Task: structure prediction
Amino acid sequence: MRARIRNTEIYFDIDGVGLAAGSDRMVQRPALFLLHGGPGGDHSSFKTQLAPLRDTAQLVYIDHRGSGRSSAADPASYTLDENILDLEALRDYLGLEHISVLGFSYGGMVAQGYAIRFPDRVEKLILSATAPSYRFIKEAQQIVERLGTPEQQRVCQRLWNATFESEKQVREYYRTMGPMYSRKFNESKFEQGWTRGIRNFQQLNSGFGGFLKTFDFIDRLPEIHCPTLVLAGAHDWICPPSQSKLIARKIRNAELKVFANSSHQIAHDEPERFLQVVRKFLTG
Result:
């Protein structure tokens, strides 16, 4: 499905009912907006990892503007601020008074910005493997310098310098960095997932060459007052657990869960526990 909002066209998909039949009454389930990583990724991996949550929430999959199956837009509008405003416009388009939001990685940055700017619209907030400011980049660089192989250090230079020139180079980057992104990296499963997804290397360059080097929500995190769950992978290199711990300290009464056997892709590394924790939070 597509929504024409804010001079662009956003792709979204919905899985699960909003009003479920209980034993003796109808039960309202939360609308859970799922925000993917990147910048320049898409929602496709959520459908293999998060789809079981349809028994708890009505899932709303979204591709950010210009990403995945959303229509191309002015490249100058591929920014964090625009993604935040698009989310609010899509909420309004769907006629929802309140929404819950799960943001993964870059999507978690969008989710933080949305909860800060539109606090009265967010029922519950889930921030998975993300960071609150540009400072995560320096920490990630230090981890790769310390733990990465020479090949991993080489491909990361395209990320730090924002110099990807093709989707082929992005594929090489993610395949090479796969063992650092996931403790259960499997090359054949990586190839299957890659063919399902759509990537935008220009957006990746735009993020790491621009707004990701300057954004900073740290001082405004205390303005978030909705119930918040913060998820961190103990071995995450790109959004290290120190970043999640900082978020949890700044948001009043935030709940922090650190997954001991996970890297960045928590839902892939510890799927059963991930789903259990998220379900408990949404229904608690």
